[in-house]
Specification:
single chain, flat
Length: 311
């Protein structure tokens, strides 16, 4: 082998190694379920923001800025760790589903033991960070972790009740944001929790219909899998959406927000409800996707309205 050839071969191997590294890093990033983690960050921030009487004056103190950032980081780490543990527990189911077969564990990019260690490490780091906020916030984060990983994840393969159970850890982070400031739960916090709780119902019902065949292959006991026509799924989406709109209005009723929030929420709620009714009129993947996209618009709109029109 010539020296030049050996040099070129070495360079080629180095290039391959460099190219491979980002794929491993991106795989670990995917283990954290970035979409869910980002949603958790926003809902935690909303809870924190609503709990502070004068937020912008509050944030002029560096200690308060650090407190806010540490709350977000701690909550995000627990969420990311929970997501990685979910990947670990559902690796076999993911390998049978088209939309998840290329995830880090089924694809072999990350080994199960590595994902397990990664999930535990992130969760512990998050809980430790929140310990410097207050014990109540740590408790809520731990409750989120346990309810998502230990209860919700295995329940998905046993009962349609997983929809309701899974909405609890999905809604707890907004309580965590509130409790980080107040160290107690009151009416505003409960309403925020219920908004996040009921928002997830039409959102995930639509998602389950979109991937009905996939969930069936994965062995998940979801409403869409057990509903041949999709009408029960659509009716549930309408009912939950109507409840969501009613609960969202309560923030104005108790004086936490103003009339801009009220008007905006009613308009957004009407659009969201209309999409679920259309889904019932014509059960299709396209209409289910419209419900899903509208659900994102609704929640983002409500968050923005809270930030703009907090009393």
């Amino acid at each position: 082998m010539s020296e030049a050839y050996a040099h070129n071969l070495h360079r080629t191997e180095m290039v391959k190694a460099v190219k491979a590294e980002p794929s491993v890093l991106s795989a670990y990033y995917e283990l954290t379920k970035p979409g869910i983690t980002k949603m958790v960050v926003m809902s935690t921030a909303v809870g924190y923001y609503l709990a502070v009487d004068q937020f912008f004056a509050y944030m002029t103190e560096w200690s308060n800025v650090f407190h806010f950032i540490l709350t977000i980081i701690g909550t995000s780490l627990v969420c990311a760790g929970s997501s990685a543990l979910n990947h670990y527990l559902e690796r076999e189911q993911d390998s049978r589903m088209q939309r998840t077969k290329n995830r880090p564990l089924p694809s072999g990019i990350v080994e199960p033991q590595q994902a397990l260690a990664f999930g535990i490490a992130l969760s512990v780091l998050g809980l430790v960070a929140l310990f410097f906020i207050n014990v109540f916030t740590v408790f809520l984060a731990l409750l989120t972790l346990v309810s998502y990983v230990v209860i919700y994840t295995p329940l998905k393969q046993k009962s349609t009740l997983s929809l309701l159970v899974g909405a609890i850890p999905g809604a707890l982070p907004t309580l965590g944001g509130w409790v980080a400031v107040r160290n107690e739960i009151n009416a505003e916090a409960i309403i925020l929790f219920l908004i996040l709780f009921f928002w997830q119902m039409p959102h995930f019902l639509a998602l389950s219909w979109m991937y009905k065949a996939d969930y069936e292959r994965g062995g998940f006991k979801m409403a869409a899998v057990l509903d041949e026509s999709g009408k029960k799924v659509a009716i549930q989406a309408i009912v939950y959406c109507a409840i969501l709109v009613g609960i969202s209005i309560l923030l104005k009723t108790i004086g936490a927000t103003g009339y801009l929030y009220l008007a905006g929420t009613i308009i957004l709620g009407g659009i969201f409800l209309y999409s679920t009714i259309n889904f019932l009129k014509e059960i299709s993947v396209a209409n289910a996707r419209k419900v899903l996209l509208t659900s994102y618009a609704y929640l983002m709109g409500v968050f923005v309205l809270i930030f703009v029109d907090k009393v």
